[in-house]
Design goal:
Distance between the termini of chain A: 41 Å
Radius of gyration of chain B: 13 Å
Number of strands of chain B: 11
Shape of chain A: globular
Structural class of chain A: mainly beta
Helix content of chain A: under 10%
Largest interface: A-B, 21 and 21 residues
Structural class of chain B: mainly beta
Oligomer: heterodimer
Chain lengths: ~120, ~120
């Protein structure tokens, strides 16, 4: 079984500053993928970044980077130079990559508010 | 690339009627599509997984006869909420996955309100 924990229900950050959204996970799968999605008030889920458990380097996508610490089972999302448009719900998710396709398991989400 | 659409985006219906929601992958073929339900201020709850040409796999506690899923082609899956009741009011989101890929791409969601 897999579990994702996001302990921050809400985070506040000022525009242009960096913010870290926490995510820890638990799994018995030796191979797995970790994802971050952004959900603005419109409701759509926007894929941000992916980290495979065997990837040697931390994933980066523009202003998004994933601080992957395998031993600690954490996959924190770092957003640099926050923008007002970054205000949204952020969900961390994971999926086992073993035999067959396993479903995506989501955390409870963190609401990020970016202030001017 | 990797665009998923949903139609309708919002629907209001009377109790007892059936509602069909479409999920389309616009620029890729999706061997697997997923249907989620999201209550206000909560996370996504997977309802079912559908593979093209085969029966959907439902999660525990999800009524198969109430939430009919059809995945007739590699670009279209439909969710029909049969005999809808007010407690079925929710935000329904689909996602699609390309065979062999790790990432799921989500549709914009459909907000269902049953009066």
């Amino acid at each position: 079984a897999q579990k994702i924990t996001q302990t921050q229900p809400g985070m506040f950050v000022q525009e242009k500053e960096a913010v870290t959204l926490d995510c820890t996970y638990d799994t018995s799968d030796p191979s797995y993928g970790l994802f971050w999605y952004k959900q603005p008030s419109s409701g759509e889920m926007i894929f941000l970044i992916y980290q495979g458990s065997y990837d040697q380097q931390n994933a980066t996508e523009g202003r998004y980077s994933l601080n992957f610490q395998k031993a600690r089972k954490s996959a924190n999302l770092v957003i640099s130079a926050s923008q007002l448009g970054d205000s949204a719900m952020y969900f961390c998710a994971m999926r086992g990559l073993n035999t067959g396709f396993q479903k995506l398991v989501f955390g409870t989400g963190t609401r990020l508010l970016v202030s001017p | 690339g990797a665009v998923v659409s949903q139609h309708p985006s919002r629907v209001i219906c009377k109790s007892g009627t059936s509602v069909k929601i479409e999920c389309r992958s616009l620029d890729f073929q999706a061997t697997t599509m997923f249907w989620y339900r999201q209550f206000p201020k909560q996370s996504l709850m997977l309802m079912a997984t559908s593979n093209e040409g085969s029966k959907a796999t439902y999660e525990q506690g999800v009524e198969k006869d109430k939430f009919l899923i059809n995945h007739a082609s590699l670009t279209l899956s439909t969710l029909t909420v049969t005999s809808a009741h007010p407690e079925d009011s929710s935000f329904y989101i689909c996602s699609a996955r390309v065979e062999g890929a790790d990432t799921q791409y989500f549709g914009p969601g459909t907000r269902l309100t049953v009066l």
